[in-house]
């Protein structure tokens, strides 16, 4: 069990800056994120797109913003729990007990939800019959590529993941690559490689096709794919891989008894606290009159939520407001020299 | 201003007036029409405002920008007549536009 002053759910810009605010005022914190890296939507959805409305930064990309926020956290020792997702939340006396997918347990008086529009999950095939093969013959990410050796693998998708895996797996497997249109959106070099492998018969390409159904008793045997013009082909397949990008879902947070408006969580504007004491929501996931889904709003919300955390984490101490420019204590925390 | 009709997957229809210059996605969100999420706020960065547009209207819409088709690859059950409704700007010419919503967005 990990005891901490505050648990931050979400390592996007709002979560990262809130960690900074907590550390500045002398609280410790831990951060959990379902993605394998920090940055949230900035990194996952628009790493290369320029942002023009971060105060004092005329222009930066999502990737640069994330890097700068991480640099700002360098003076502090913060534990990131990536590729993990919060699951359960329950009351434990004056604390909240939070359990993750990987079985980690946090005990904390403060839970700060900075979850954006929810956690990123792979987009799956819409056909119901695919569910029973999931994690057996149908995968949305690859953990162990050896299982595909000598097998027939049908890969769906048109981006880098689909193309990269088609090239990689074609070394030891028979690969079908299926995409809903003629154009691919992956790197040109990889696409050239795919066409080369297609010519040499290592990859069979099916464009303007989508999955129709999967067939098999126990294990997967074949799949039907359907062309735009409704023509159907049956392909023998031992494995099916789907790479359709990520979707965002509120996930288990929706079951935590918080007051929700659509996919957002209602909070007050003093502490950004939800209807549950010690649970805050900040950034895109929170809702209040006048809420703007801007990164700068998330920073403000995090700064205020961090101060609210102090009261619950240090009930016997009085919080004293200080500026980073002048406070000796804060400078010590930052590891910089005082004048 | 244009009348836009949103047809939910279950057949429920909603016809609303949407101001010129707004997107079809914004028209849905502002009128609380279920079935269009618009998670990314219109940045062509998600695929949760996905709609189907029947041929007679599809060909009247402005062409897709680079990137829209890439996002549609990641939509729920994309078809040939799929569009992201954040990329359809409402104008007088679109008065009477009908869009059909997929079974779900995520």
Write the layout of secondary structure elements.
The complex is a heterodimer of chains A (339) and B (106).
Chain A: E1 2-3, E2 6-9, H1 13-24, E3 29-32, H2 41-44, E4 50-51, E5 60-61, H3 62-72, E6 79-81, E7 86-92, E8 95-100, E9 105-108, E10 110-113, E11 119-122, E12 138-139, E13 152-156, H4 160-169, E14 174-179, H5 188-199, E15 203-207, E16 209-215, E17 222-227, E18 232-236, E19 239-242, E20 246-249, E21 260-261, E22 264-266, E23 279-281, E24 286-287, H6 295-313, H7 328-334
Chain B: E1 2-7, E2 13-18, H1 24-30, E3 50-52, H2 55-58, H3 68-72, E4 82-84, E5 97-100
Parallel strand pairs in B: 1-5
Antiparallel strand pairs in B: 1-2, 3-4
| Structural class by SSE content of chain A | alpha/beta
Shape of chain A: elongated
Low-confidence stretches of chain B: none
Q: Give a quick account of the main beta sheet of chain A: strands, pairing sense, barrel closure.
A: 5 strands, parallel
Catalogue the unreliable spans of chain A: none
Give the termini distance of chain B in whole angstroms.
30 Å
**Number of distinct helices of chain A:** 7
Strand residue content of chain B: 15-25%
Quaternary state of this entry equals heterodimer
State the CATH topology of chain B.
Answer: Ubiquitin-like (UB roll)
Tell me, what is the CATH class of chain B? Alpha Beta
At the fourth level of CATH, the homologous superfamily of the largest domain in chain A is FAD/NAD(P)-binding domain
